[in-house]
Amino acid sequence: MIDVIMSPSLLEASLLEQAQVVVLDVLRASSTMVTALANGAVEVRLFDSVEEVTATRAALRATTPRVLAGGERGCVPVPGFDLGNSPAQYRPEVVAGATVLLSTTNGTRAATAAAAAQHLYIGSLLNAQATAEALLPAIDDRHTLFVPAGTDGRASLEDWLGAGAILWYIFGGTYRGDLSFTDTAWMAYHAFAAVKDRLPAALRLGSGGLNLIQAGFEEDIDWCAAINSRPIVAEARRDPLRVVRG
Ligand code: MLT
Known about the structure:
By secondary structure, the protein is of the alpha/beta class. It has one domain: Alpha-Beta Complex (putative 2-phosphosulfolactate phosphatase), CATH 3.90.1560.10. Helices cover 39% and strands 19% of the residues. The chain has eleven helices and ten strands. The chain has helices at 13-16, 29-38, 50-60, 92-95, 107-113, 128-135, 157-174, 183-195, 199-203, 207-215, 218-225, and strands at 2-4, 19-24, 43-46, 67-73, 76-77, 99-103, 119-123, 143-148, 234-237, 242-245. The protein has a six-stranded mixed beta sheet with strand order 5-4-6-3-10-9, sandwiched between helices. Strands 1-8-2-7 form a four-stranded parallel beta sheet, with helices on both faces. Strand 4 and strand 5 form a beta hairpin. Helix 6 (128-135) packs across helix 7 (157-174), helix 7 (157-174) packs across helix 8 (183-195) and helix 10 (207-215) crosses helix 11. It is globular. The model has no long low-confidence stretch (mean pLDDT 96). Bound molecules: D-malate. D-malate binds at residues 25, 27-29, 72, 75, 85, 104-107.
């Protein structure tokens, strides 16, 4: 079964253990993680709270040469952190060789909620096709579950478009009519199909895009809309929860 769930709060532990899962926070946490890894970060560790990031940065600084704290609250950078949640900040000269510690309002929390998955990937428009190709080998043997992070428990347009993009490449890569897409998977697929040639405009229409515009981060929307521009697989590992290049 290939499914898109409405909210991370609907995740069931029993299903996660058998599933390959893709968490998406297209604006902007997933796009930031994918950009950081594509630009040479060693790993992106994920945290629910600002306090955990601060404590981990202090603990790691003695042993780890380059540690950077990144993230946002209310879209704006956290005071005292090295970086915000704008993917463009995660340039090669900033992140190459670094361990990034990231905490965001919804995206990193959605990944934490899905941490028990058998395989956990971070998906975005930037790495849509690469993520689809990583999922395909196990598509017949495991549940494939897309988890749009959404905003404060509500669905976000851009995360569904991100899921739809990956589903587009899964279907387009196989043309298999027997792949069991649920109705929500088809909804995401068709939503992406409808706007795939005008993603920057489409991302501006949802509440996530409008929030970023209001907060002064409109150019991040164009960055996050650049489909397949960072063709890497971003795969999570546990204990501690972190994302590395797959
Ligand atoms: C989140 O995790 O809620 C988002 O990444 C928010 C943002 O883009 O600032």
